[in-house]
Amino acid sequence: MTQPRYKASYPDAARSYAEQGATDREVAEMFGVSERTVHRWKHSHPEFAAALAVGKDVADQRVEQSLYRRATGYSHDAVKIFMPAGATEPVIVPYVEHVAPDTVAAIFWLKNRKPDQWRDKQEMRVTGDFSLAAEIEAARLRLARHEADMARNGGEYFPPEDSSSDEPALLEYQPMERAN
């Protein structure tokens, strides 16, 4: 099978397609070749690769500008066309339409432009001597003592008389009554 011929005019056409938002696959379809061939041309013809990169950059900048305008709000000229009852011609009224800022676009912009300040996941640094395993083991020991006390007292719980203990008091579970 013979490879499709590369032509000197392809970089300009590729740049133009990419400026319109075409992907490598779509560029390949426009040239009537496979996407793999487009990738080969990018490696063997630096001017082709550069033209695609420039075109994609232009399209990306246009999207960035649109996202920015959407995030901050904008105004544009518009017209309303009316056909009053009994009129023979429509009435055209120019006006300025105001588009309010879009919160979702603003959040997206800020999360990407200032990720340390706007990301969903905030990282916190904990210092000191903290061992979750030790806390869990201490809770298990308190629970075991509580269960032993209840077994000795016939299933009833009597809180310790020494209220100066650092241990939290374990209370008996009492379900709430349903209100109708």
Helix and strand layout, with pairings?
Layout: H1 10-19, H2 24-31, H3 35-44, H4 46-72, E1 74-82, E2 91-99, H5 103-113, H6 115-118, H7 132-152
Antiparallel strand pairs: 1-2
Helix pairs in contact: 1-2, 1-4, 2-3, 3-4, 4-5
Write structural notes for this entry.
With 180 residues, the chain is mainly alpha-helical. It has 3 domains: 60 residues; 45 residues, no CATH class; 48 residues, no CATH class. The protein contains 7 helices and 2 strands; from the N terminus they run ααααββααα. A two-stranded antiparallel ribbon has the order 1-2. β1 and β2 form a beta hairpin.
Distance between the termini: 81 Å
- Helical fraction equals 40-55%
Sum up the overall morphology in one term.
flat
Classification by helices and strands = mainly alpha
Please indicate the count of domains.
3
Rounded average pLDDT: 85
Notable characteristics:
two-stranded antiparallel sheet; 51% helix; flat; mainly alpha; 180 residues
Give a summary of the structure in a few sentences:
The chain is mainly α and 180 residues long.
